[in-house]
Design goal:
The protein is mostly helical. It contains 3 helices and 2 strands. The relative contact order is 0.14.
Length: 105
């Protein structure tokens, strides 16, 4: 007579578990390291939300567009888990946002 034990496999969802991050995933159960650093959060929001087409400050608008473009590129790289691009875009955002970025942090 054979005795079998039941086996339960729990599949957990990976993603960003930091609710302060721009790419927070409420369904994620395990953090996979893809959270957009909170240091960038305010910079990205301020740059994008403060752009005015009436404003003649083209340098400020150009900077905001660059920040937005790098942020969108960062999100795309995160979806494909391309660490080379993720680190490159984070470095670019850090430079534009005058923030520090540490690859191993």
């Amino acid at each position: 007579m054979a005795i079998y034990e039941s086996l339960t496999i729990k599949v957990e969802t990976f993603g960003c578990t930091n609710p302060d991050s721009l790419n927070y995933d409420a369904n994620a159960q395990l953090d996979d390291g893809t959270c957009v650093d909170t240091a960038f959060t305010e910079c990205i929001k301020n740059a994008v939300y403060n752009v005015s087409l009436k404003d003649c400050d083209l340098d400020n608008n150009k900077r905001a567009l660059e920040i937005y473009t790098y942020y969108q590129s960062l999100k795309a790289a995160m979806k494909t888990k391309n660490n080379v691009k993720i680190n490159m875009y984070k470095e670019k955002l850090a430079k534009l946002c005058n923030a520090e970025y540490c690859e191993s942090c």
